User: What shape does this take?
Amino acid sequence: MRRFALAAVAAVFLAGCGRASGASQVASAPAPASSVAASSSLSATVLAPPQPVSVNVAKTVRGTEAGTPPPGLSGALAFATAQDGLAGLNGGGVLATSDGGRSWSVLDAGGRRFQELAYPAPGRAYGLTYGHVLWASTDGGRTWTKVRAFTPSVAAFSQGLDFTGADAGWVAVGSTLYTTTDGGVYWASHTAPCARGFSAGPVDATHGYLLCVGEPGMGAQAKAMYVTADGGGTWTQVAVAQWPGAASRVGLPAAGYASDLVFLSPNVGYLSEERGGLYQTDDGGRTFRQLLESDGAEGMAWPSAAVGYLAANGAVVTTDDGGATWRQVYPALSPTESVVFTSAARGIGLGTSWDPQAVLATADGGRTWTMVGRMPGIAMRLTLQPHGVVWAYEGGLFRSTDSGRTWTAVTQIPPRGGGAVQGLAFPSSAVGFAEDNQGQMFRTGDGGRTWSPLPRSSVPGGASLAFATPQVGWAFAGAAGSWETADGGETWRPLVGWRQVPDFGGFADGSRGWAVGVDCAAGSCTGGVLLTTDGGAAWDAITVAAPATQAAPSFVGCTALDFPTADVGYAVLDGHLYRTGDGGLTWQLLAD
Assistant: This one.
C-alpha cells in the first residue's frame, strides 16, 4: 500500500466511474450511393412493450477461459431453426448454439472474421468475409471451404448474403447482385438498380427485394426499395424515403442507417438499422412499423414469423412473440451502466448493452440477474438512500421504493438550462444533496420529498458528490477542481493541489470509504481503488489483484463503484461487473 494525504494526490484524476460522449456524424448530400456496413454503437433505447418484464437468463460460453469477458460480436447473425444459430466474432471465428442461445460454443473457423452469415439448414452454413470472399460449411461452422471471391464493379462499402435454401442464395457486392441455385457452383450476375450499395432480401429463387441506400449522416439515410419476380433480371420500385423529411415510423424509414434486410414471404419482411432499430413490413416493403428502437441494430435472423434474433450493440436478443417482447441470450444478462447493493447479495443494476433503460435485479451477489422493469426516462447512474430507496440520475431524476420495479419522476428540483442532475448523495435516510448541470446545489431534509436550493458556490455544474455525514462532503469536477464542505453544503472550500480527482464509491460508515482514481502520463492511463479509514482525511492506494484465472482489472473504464459492506464491493468496468470480497484487494469478473 501507498499512503498519502488527501491534498497530496495531484496526479490522480476522475476517469473511473464517469461517462464519455461520442462524436456525431455529419451528413452529405442524400443520393443512393453506398450502404453502411454493420458497426458497433453504444446505446439502445425503447424496449416494447414498456411494462416491466421478468427474464432470468444465465448462460455459459463453452470454449472460453473462465473469468474472462465474453468474445465480442461482429454483428453477423444467422439461425437455421429456432434453436440452431451462428454469430460472428470480432476477433474471428463464430459462436454456435443448438439450444436457442441458452449456451454457446466458440468455433475457431480458421480465424476468419465474417461480416455476413447465412444458415439455411442445420449443418449447412455460408459466410462472407471482409474482402468479398464466400465460404461454406457443412458441419455447422466447425470447418469452412472457400467458394469464391467476388470482385465489385465499383467501390463497395457493404456486402450482403442470404440463402433461402441449402443451395439457393444471393450475394450483394457493390452494384452487382450474384445469385446461385446450386450451392455456389454457378453464379449469375445482375446489375442492381443501385449506385454502389444495397441490402438483399430474397424470398425464394425468383422473388426478392433490394434496398438501395445513400450516404449515411445526421441519423438519416436515403433509401429505395425494389422488388423482383424473375430472379433479379428486372426490378420495380415499391417505396422510397428521401432524406430529410420522410417520417421515421411510417412508409420506408429515412431515419437510421440500414444494416440488414430479411423477407419471410412476398409480403412480410424486416429491416434493421443502426440509429433506428428494427422494423417490420406486411405489405411488401411499402410501409413499415417499428418493433424495437435501438442505436445498434445489426444482423438479424427470423426462423419463423414468431421467433426472431437480433444482434444489437454486442448482444444477441430474441423474441418468441413476433417482436412484442425481447430477452437477451448473449452474453449473460448483467448491468452495464450502474449498480447499487442493499446487502452483499441483493442489488439493482441499470442498463444492458442494447437497452440502457433496463432495470435488473440480483439476489446472489451479482452472479445472475433478472430484468424487473425499465426506467421511464434517461438516467445513467444509481445511488442508494438508506433504508432501501433507490434513486436514478444523470439525465432525469427518478425514485423507486420497490427495488427498481417502478419509478417516479422527481420534479421538485427546478430545471436550470436542462436541469439534469449530475451529482446525488444521501449520507442518511433523511438528508440528501444534489447538483444540477448548471452548478446549483440542493438539499433535502425529508428523504427527498422536498428540496431547497443551497447558496451558490464556486463548484461548477456536473460535479459528482460524496458525503460521509450530513455535514462533511466533497464535490469532484474532474479537471475543474475539487471542493469539500464541513457545514452541509452551505459553504465549499477548494482542495489546493488537486488537478483532477477520483469519484467516491460509498462509505460503509462515517469513516471508511472507497474511491476510484486514475493516473495518466505520456498518453497512458492506469486506474485503481483508493481507501480511507478516517473519513477522507487520508487515503490508501490499494494494490488491485485478481484470481489466478483472470487478469487484474483496470478501473480506467469504471462507470459504477459500490460497497454495501466493509468487505464486499461491486464495480462496473467497461460494461462488465466485478466483485470483491476483501475490501477491494482482489476483484473477480461476474456473470459473463
Remarks:
- The domain at 2-19+332-589 is CATH 2.130.10.10 (Methylamine Dehydrogenase; Chain H).
- The chain has two domains: 2-19+332-589, 59-330.
